[in-house]
Amino acid sequence: MARVKRGVHKRKHRRKVLEAAAGYRGVRSRHFRAAKEQMLHSLTYAYRDRRDRKGQFRRLWIAKINAGARSHGMSYSRFMEGLHRAGIEVDRKVLAEMAVEDREGFAALVEMAREHAHTPAAVARSEPVEEPA
User: Fold this and answer.
1) What is the pLDDT of residues 84-98, one digit of tens each?
2) In angstroms, rounded to a whole number, what is the distance separating the alpha carbons of residues 70 and 117?
3) pTM for the whole structure
């Protein structure tokens, strides 16, 4: 059987890894072994953080909605509960945008949520809930 020489493919692979590691500091951009390790870590971080970004945006939207609701005298949880009970289905991205850009529209949503949200006084007046045995 013929002998297979891998020189061309090996150099091509090393060049590809070192080019991908361009911009890393020190040995990690110059030595193949360190560059390969760092590249694998970097790809892992990139994969993980693409998913984490969605949660970061959700936390940002919730902070904006909370600030907008509190400026109208209502907490985030009561606001979202009121919207749910009112049957208003608006996602958090749109609500956050409204809280910042469309204050009148957001104020109207807060009033609708206030009408449908449970207040502590309303909960106290309601019939007692039977606990399961």
Assistant:
1) 999 999 999 999 999
2) 15
3) 0.74
